[in-house]
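Morning!

This is the sequence you dropped in the shared folder:
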Amino acid sequence: MTGSSESPSPSSAPFPASSAGFVEPEAGSSLSSLQAARSAVSALTAAGVTDVVVAPGSRSAPLAYALGEAEAQGRVSVHIRIDERVAGFTALGLARGGHRPAAVVTTSGTAVGELMPAVMEAHHAGVPLVVLSADRPAELHGTGANQTTVQPGIFADFPAATADIRAGEDPAGAINAAFNEVSAGGPAGPIHINLQFRDPLIPQDGDTAELAAAYAELPDAELPSDPVATGREAAVLANHDGTYRAVVIAGDGAGEIAALFARRARLPLLAEPSSNARFGPNAIGAYRLLLEELGPEVERVVVFGRPTLSRPVAALLARRDVEKAIYVPRPVNWFTAGRRPETLITDLAGLFGFAGEGTPGWLERWQAASAAAMAAVSSLLEGEAELNGLQVADLVWDHTDGNLVLGSSNPIRDMDLVAAPDWHPLDVYANRGLAGIDGTIATASGIALANGIPTRVLLGDLTFLHDAGALLLGPGEPEPDLQLVVLNDGGGGIFSTLEHGALGEREEYAAVVERFFGTPHTVDLAALAAAYGVPHTLVRTADELDEALDAPVTGRSILEVPVRRDALRKLHAAVSSAVRNVLR
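The structure's back. Tokens below.
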């Protein structure tokens, strides 16, 4: 938390400003800080913001009072978090889960910098996260005043729109313009509103709640609607040009349109878990293990969303002998024009023309291979004496009928390997914009709170520990229905499956790989959960986990599943070998 006491004037700065450098308050400043904050809140609600996460601080006090007033009037829901990074990711989750903009409020100084990870993720994932950063007035800038820094532009090029509003100005017009800028057809993403506030920062005599009525609601400034929902009927009637051995790759955020497209074009669908397209007869299970056998025959690739999970898919997309197209109905932030190998196609008719239809028997070969591979993996896992990440992922997928959030690192890759396409949770989320492990619990909390939908999270122990502060809820704060399934292998398991794991098997490198990549720990997760008042259950067997996952997700809880990290590399090698054997 960075809301410490603040200097009220430049005279308290270590080096008082000279008269030549001092900036006097603007003569035209008319609104009090609370009036400006009320106007800002009205502008936000008019733009569709229904949830705001607030981290405490003094300079942001006007916004806190205005939001408290708006919440009492039923215009907005406010969530309090003491940690700004947690607040940012909670707002990110609220925006993702609610499919509408959500805001986060911080005081000035380093508090704003704490939001950078969430802003970066929002930029790369196209999430409408709104940052409201409180700032000192212009006359305090450059004077050494406490908690005063350069906040405009602090997020560099990540925001889709920005506004810097001087103290005393009505912020409504600038906020409305920022939302309209995003709505004008550019990439979706975060908005940064920097609001300068001058003392006094608390309500004054006569500054009553009735003043809020003086600010007429702005016309709705809607963020761009989801283009996936448009043009589906036209797509069904689209003509196909030719037949090809093509595949559809659905990356993060692809949406159900990818599944509908693959089915209409009679093409295999290689869908990542967070694509929300991993369903239907064309969805291929264990697809990354099939690319070794069938991948060399692929002639064309159609990409939806952002594929990030597997090296076999990346290798396929890098092949120069394969024609590739990517569906981009509106600009996105995650790549720069001209830097992707695919042809950009903005309409479904053009995409159907590129993909044509699958050659006779092509889809059926993938489906048969998928069935054989999934059966082989299932048989191998049933013979494992100890519970492992692949079994846990399989059980979590099958038992989740609400929302599912997947932590980066091994859990989402385990899920990608074993999740069967004959079942799908309500919605699957993952922070794949930058694929960091930070903020996962906070993001999931926001997703669960957005619509009150029970949400389950599958994450590793390091991801859990990185965001353990998100377990802290103040008295009276709404508690999400959130269950954390923590795979605890006492360190960073993903490196075991990469080239570092092979190096670590050599005696001369074992110690350095374990220390620098395994990053072992001995944290007592049960004690940590108890400190935050969150119920904890230790689950050691598949039967115990099956029973625990059968129970409804109500309130917050933690299921800790201890697994072995030293057996991970051998397990994945056995899975790959089993699939190769059934395909030959």
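Headline: The longest helix spans residues 362-382.

More detail when I'm at my desk.
O.
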